[in-house]
């Protein structure tokens, strides 16, 4: 401390870390020293870091759950239709799908009432 004009040091006193900031007086007769416990000035930083990390973790969890529910809601009707088509392809022609709760596009098989699953006049 005596060889340098100013600086910062970290000193461990009985397991507690003190931060010492020092500078010499203009006439070099004194050394001014400020002692601050490291936990006092780093505590709010650590608290803010924990808050940010917990917020990110909760946001990731909520977005993952939301994504799962949205994906499940979109793919469930198609899974039901695929399962029904597989049963029909195995010869079980009495297979029915329960699509009453679904949108008209899925219930009727196409947009504006046109169906991709209806028999054409040539297939009757």
Tell the overall outline.
Answer: rod-shaped
Summing up helix and strand content along with how strands pair, one would put the structural category as: alpha+beta
Largest sheet: 3 strands, antiparallel
Strand order of the largest sheet: 1-2-3
Radius of gyration: 36 Å
Strand runs, count: 3
Helix amount: 40-55%
User: Approximately what portion of the residues adopt beta-strand conformation?
Assistant: 15-25%
End-to-end Cα distance? 100 Å
**Total of DSSP H or I helical runs spanning 4+ residues:** 2
Q: Could you please describe the fold and organization of this structure?
A:
The protein is α+β, with helices and mostly antiparallel strands. About 45% of the residues lie in helices and about 20% in strands. The chain contains two helices and three strands; from the N terminus they run E-E-E-H-H. A three-stranded antiparallel β-sheet has the order 1-2-3. The chain starts with 5 loop residues before the first strand and ends in a 16-residue tail after the last helix.
Summarize the topology.
Elements (H helix, E strand, L loop, with lengths): L5 E8 L2 E9 L6 E7 H52 L14 H5 L16
Antiparallel strand pairs: 1-2, 2-3
Which features characterize this protein?
alpha+beta; 124 residues; three-stranded antiparallel beta sheet; 3 strands
Describe, in short, the structure shown:
The protein is of the alpha+beta class. It has helices at residues 38-89, 104-108; strands at residues 6-13, 16-24, 31-37.
